[in-house]
Amino acid sequence: MKSFYHYLMKYRHPKPKDEISHFANAAYEDHSFPKASTDYHELSVYLELNGDYLSSMTTFDEAFEQYDVEVKKK
Questions:
Q1: Does the domain spanning 4-72 belong to CATH 1.10.150.260?
Q2: Whole-structure pTM over 0.85, yes or no?
Q3: How is residue 70 annotated by DSSP?
Q4: How far is it, in rounded angstroms, from Cα 51 to Cα 3?
Q5: 8-22 pLDDT, tens per residue?
Q6: CA-CA to 55 of 20 to 30 Å: which in 22, 43, 47, 71?
């Protein structure tokens, strides 16, 4: 199964137009991001402690919900 990080990278963009693209760009720059994780709780805890680049955890929640629908539910 594709990790959340791998899924999120499809939203990277040199000129981000939305919060998820900003998140993807920042996660790419975050060398400690749990790149292999598929677990909501693990990612959420990491971002709460280290995700100062997120304007709101809602952005993560929305991205993870999309990931859950598109990848995990297959």
A1: yes
A2: yes
A3: I
A4: 18
A5: 999 999 999 899 999
A6: 71
